[in-house]
């Protein structure tokens, strides 16, 4: 556990485009707390030096420290998905934290603690529970993935895309499906082979998966891992790749196409400010395109005309267009989203099946 607070102008505001997801808005109020008396605790799923997911969240923690230099902040890295998580969240409460933020989905491990600490505000990334004192937030990364998928569909020569996945869970389905659907929107012949490595951070497994995908004919790699192993493979094998979490072009500048980049800082600063002011309420939140998540600047080898074609869709999405519209078939050929139906963020957030042309994810 580590962390002491430090300061940045408090002009960081809640992203204008971010919106609450459909769900029950709670009305429980929390007493204001003076900044110098405040303790904010963060529970991380990985190490803050992973260069990916946890690093992105740690940048948000650093923004909180800068915005509120008098408060204390603590964090624990690499919290397991086990009873140890419950113990750590309980310890945060015992130390006097007024707010506990988990940077991954800990389900009942955090909910059980929240239920027993009604005077503490809890916020869970990628969560699904909303109670009087527990809310959740997540990024709508599927739009950035769709945009990058358009570039993939225009750049591939084999029409075979590869995906280095982690676990068969909705966030992975949404990422892979969105990339493939974006590619198919400009190149219907595109297919995607996915390999799940059953870890968020396993460079050796990611390297092996990426090598196998390239060996099978994939000339464009994407994924959702927390480190750049498969980008290094793409660079060495002369294929293209798109990354996740942060910009990673330095690990493969010729292969790098773009990345789904995350920015939790404005949201974290806003939520902590609300807790200090006594105006925080438990609620669900989606951080939207250009307001918490976006595509990174295009790589140096992306042709300008392809970048422009993909960014036409980005502009449409920012104007309110949703590209996830039926008919959409699953990888057995059955229609899952009928014509005329648009998948909203809540539907995509629960995606648990692979689209047509996908192999390796059920």
TrEMBL record:
Keywords: Signal. CDD domains: PBP1_BMP-like. Residues 40-293 form the ABC transporter substrate-binding protein PnrA-like domain. Signal peptide: none annotated. PANTHER family: ABC TRANSPORTER SUBSTRATE-BINDING PROTEIN. This is BMP family ABC transporter substrate-binding protein. It comes from Acetobacter fallax.
